[in-house]
Amino acid sequence: MNKLTLIKAGSIAFILLGIAHLSVAAIGAPESEQLTRLLADMQNYKINLFGEHDLLKFHNGFSLMMGFLLSSFGAQNLVLSEAIVTNSKAQWTTVVITAIALVISILYFHLFADGLILFSLACYCIALFGRLHK
């Protein structure tokens, strides 16, 4: 597999993760009495940060932003994949950002997110390793 294909594959994994995140945010969890109470509690919990907001609104906005940013990072890398392959600084930056994302994912998220980010990191690292040892 060539370096360009690896960069593109890693980027597509980020796009898919972002789309999955946005889809889950839009669909939501199945209704249950426990979830209804939790959502009501989140809506009633107020946050004073440059104005008053409720925790539910903050959570929903954060979730949508996360899905958007995951997809955007992948789309940007996909569009710029040819430039990334020829620029070691861009490759290193992509690897570092993805490695940090993987650590955060392992600490706070689920196996699906971990797996896609790990796949992206592996693709980016293999592309970088091939570039450094050519």
What percentage of the residues does DSSP assign to strands (E)?
under 5%
Separation, N- and C-terminal Cα atoms:
14 Å
Question: How many domains is the backbone divided into?
Answer: 1
Round the Cα radius of gyration to an integer and report it: 18 Å
Mean of the pLDDT scores? 92
Largest sheet: 2 strands, antiparallel
Would you count the extended β strands for me? 2
Secondary-structure element order, N to C: HHEEHHHH
Structural class: mainly alpha
Number of distinct helices: 6
The low-confidence parts are none
Report helical residue fraction.
over 70%
Q: Strands across the major sheet, in which order?
A: 1-2
Silhouette: elongated
Write a structural description.
There is one protein chain. The protein has 134 residues and is mainly alpha-helical. The chain is built from 6 helices and 2 strands, in the order H-H-E-E-H-H-H-H. The chain has helices at 3-27, 33-44, 55-79, 81-85, 88-108, 111-132; strands spanning 46-48, 52-54. It has a two-stranded antiparallel ribbon. The protein starts with a helix and ends with a helix.
Quick summary:
The chain has 134 residues and is mostly helical.
